[in-house]
Amino acid sequence: xxxxxxxxxxxxxxxxxxxxxxxxxxxxxxxxxxxxxxxxxxxxxxxxxxxxxxxxxxxxxxxxxxxxxxxxxxxxxxxxxxxxxxxxxxxxxxxxxxxxxxxxxxxxxxxxxxxxxxxxxxxxxxxxxxxxxxxxxxxxxxxxxxxxxxxxxxxxxxxxxxxxxxxxxxxxxxxxxxxxxxxxxxxxxxxxxxxxxxxxxxxxxxxxxxxxxxxxxxxxxxxxxxxxxxxxxxxxxxxxxxxxxxxxxxxxxxxxxxxxxxxxxxxxxxxxxxxxxxxxxxxxxxxxxxxxxxxxxxxxxxxxxxxxxxxxxxxxxxxxxxxxxxxxxxxxxxxxxxxxxxxxxxxxxxxxxxxxxxxxxxxxxxxxxxxxxxxxxxxxxxxxxxxxxxxxxxxxxxxxxxxxxxxxxxxxxxxxxxxxxxxxxxxxxxxxxxxxxxxxxxxxxxxxxxxxxxxxxxxxxxxxxxxxxxxxxxxxxxxx
Amino acid sequence: xxxxxxxxxxxxxxxxxxxxxxxxxxxxxxxxxxxxxxxxxxxxxxxxxxxxxxxxxxxxxxxxxxxxxxxxxxxxxxxxxxxxxxxxxxxxxxxxxxxxxxxxxxxxxxxxxxxxxxxxxxxxxxxxxxxxxxxxxxxxxxxxxxxxxxxxxxxxxxxxxxxxxxxxxxxxxxxxxxxxxxxxxxxxxxxxxxxxxxxxxxxxxxxxxxxxxxxxxxxxxxxxxxxxxxxxxxxxxxxxxxxxxxxxxxxxxxxxxxxxxxxxxxxxxxxxxxxxxxxxxxxxxxxxxxxxxxxxxxxxxxxxxxxxxxxxxxxxxxxxxxxxxxxxxxxxxxxxxxxxxxxxxxxxxxxxxxxxxxxxxxxxxxxxxxxxxxxxxxxxxxxxxxxxxxxxxxxxxxx
Lengths: 480, 399
What we know:
heterodimer, A: 480 residues, alpha+beta, Peroxisomal Thiolase, Chain A, domain 1, CATH 2.40.50, five-stranded antiparallel β-sheet, 24% helix, 28% strand, B: 399 residues, alpha/beta, nine-stranded mixed β-sheet, 15 helices, 11 strands
C-alpha cells in the first residue's frame, strides 16, 4: 500500500493584522477594505521557504527516523537559491545525506502536489519520501496579494508501511493557462482579471480533471469526505465541488481568516489540516490549480488515529503573536530602504570550504559525545572540553537539534545590528551536556528569562547581499 | 611554580598620551606622544634601546600588521620589534615581552609601546565583525556590552542579588571612576557624574546602561624597562620594580562545559593566584595598596574584585557600595579614572594602568596622589566572560 505515513506543518509565529495593513494603505487603495479582516501569517526576518520547510519536516519526522528517508522533494515558488539544491539544504539540516535523492520542484502553484505525486511514486522503489512545501512570497505594497498571502509550510512522509492515508489515485492535466506569473526580473506576481480566471480557467480546466480522477478511482463525487482546493477566490472551490457532485459540506476551509494562502504549500497545508481530524474511511481529494490541475485522492486508514502526536498545523497556529506593525512587515521583507547603520555593513562572505567541512555542525547542529568521559559538547572538537578529561579524538557525533536547552544567561543588545532589535542572545545549556552562545529568535522580553526552556530552530543567520544573497543558515534558540 | 621574575626588572621611564577622541591624531602621532615622554623620563638615547614590543588589538583599522609601524614611526635603530596582540590584554603582553627580555639578559633596556586608534571607523563602539570564517557561521551575533551584560545576569542568579541592588552597585563603580577621572588631565572623560544620571541612562545591552560601558578612545602608552642594577647605576631614585606578571587563557571549558555558571572569570582567579605567589603576597586584601583593573564594563570590575581574591565571592557588590574601592576607601581602585574615564585604547590600556602605578609610586600623580602606596596591581581582560585572556601585573617599590 502506497500513501502518506506522517504529516507535519509549520506556521511562523507572527500574524499580521490585515486591518493594520489596510489602515496604512487605505489612502491609496481604499478598495481593499473588504479584505481588511482577520490576519495572515508573517515570517520572521530570519525565515524563508527553506527554514519553514525544515521546521515542517522536523514536525513530520516526530514519529519517524530521518535516515529512512530516501527522497526529498521540496516544492516552492520561492526557493532561496536558483542554483544550489534547496532540498539538499533541508536534507543536511535533518542530518540526511547518505542514500538520498533530493529534488526541488517549483515553477507553479501546483509544485506542492507535483512533489507529492513524485514522492508517492518514488516509494515504489523502496524507502520513504519526504515531501516538503513552503512559500514566502513577496507582494507589492497595497496589493490584494499582500493581504491574501501567508507564509507557511507543510511536510508529508510517503511510504508503504503504517500508511495513514492510502493513495487511491491521481490525475493531472497541464496546459499553459496563465492566470498569473512571476517573471525572472521581478519578485512580484502579476495577475489577470479574476472573472476570466474563474470562467475560462477554473471552470473549464478543473471539473474535467476531477471527473477523470474520480473515474480512475472508481468513485463518485458524493464519496468525497474532504475536498481540498486552494484558491484566492473563496467561492470557486464550492463551485468546482458542486460541478462534480461533491457535497458542499465536504469543501474544506481555505484557512484565509487566520493564515492566508501559502502558495505552492497551501494544498499540502490544507491536507495536513484535514488529516489532523480525519477518520478511518474518509476520502480526501486534493486539487491544485496552476497551468493545469493536479487531483489526488486518498483514503484515510485506521493508522491515522495511532500516529504519535505532533504540533501539526493546529499546534503551530496556536503559537501566535499578533503583529500590528505594518512597517515591520515591510522591513522584514526588505521592502523599505531602512537605515541599518554601519554595523550592518560587515562583510558576510561565507567560506564555502569551511561550510563544507563543518556542514554537520552548522546545518545539522551535530556536536560530540566523548567516548571516554561521556561529556556532550558543542562544537565537536578533537580534544574533549571536559577539564578532567581532555581525551584526544574521542568524540562521536551527537545530534543536538532535537534537544531542549535552558537559558543560563542572556541579554537584549541594542548595539549590535539586528533587523529586529534588540538582539536577544545568550548562553544556552543542554541538560545532556553541552552549551553555546546562541542567537535567540521569536523572543519577547516576557519569555526570555534565566532558566527558560528553549527549542532549537533552523534559521537564517545572515544574508550576504554583496554576493547576490547567499543565506547563512544556523540554529537559534526560541522560547518553548 | 617557576621561579618568577620578582625584582629582576625595573621601570626606567614611562609615557602616556592624552586619551580621548583624538581627531587631531593618527596612531603615529599618538605613539610618538607616549614615546617622547617615556624616553625623556628614562633619560636615555634611543640608541640605548635593545629591543621593542609593540601592542595593538584591532590593528586592521589603524597601523596594520608587524613591528614595522612602530619602527618606522619612531625611527628605531633597526632593533627587534615584536608586534603582539592578545585582545584587551595586549598592552600588558607587550610589557611582559619587554620584561622577560630584560630578565633573561637578552636585552639591557627594552621598550613596550601600545597604541590604538579607534576613532577612524565612522561609528561609535568597537569595530565588529572579527573572528575566523567558522566563527562567522555560528557564534552569536553579539557585542562586548551584550557579552558582559550576561555576566551581570549570571552573577545575580548565582548569588541571589536583586536587579536593583546590582544596578546600584555597578552604578557606584562608574560613579567612583568618574569622580577619579575628573582629577586626571590625560583622561578621556573628566567630568563627575551624578548617580541619578548613571541609573537612568539609556540601555545598551540590558542590564548595562550607557554609563556601565567604558569609553572607546584613542591613545598610546609606553614603558621602558631595565634591570634594577642598571637603573641604580643611572642614578634613578624611587625605583619601581616588577613583582609578578601572569597571564591565564581560557581553554574552552567555560564556553563549552557545563561546570561554569557564568558568574565569574575563571582565568582571573588563576592568574591572580599565580601572581600573588610570584610576588610573595600572602594576604592581598591587606597588602595591595591600589588597583587598576579592567573595567570595560562596571560589572566586570565588580566581579573582578572577587576574582582577584579581594572581595569574597558574591560579596563584591557590598564592598563596592561600602566605598571600599573609592579613592578614600580601603583600597582605591581606578584612581586614574579607569577604562571608564581615562579611556580604553585597547592596545595601550595595560600600559596606561602601569603608568598610573608608576606615577603613584614616584609621587607624581598630582591631585589624585595616594599616600605612600607600596604594592600596585593591574589587571586586563580580553575577550568575553566565557572565553578570554586575563593578565595580571604586580609592581611596587624596589627595596
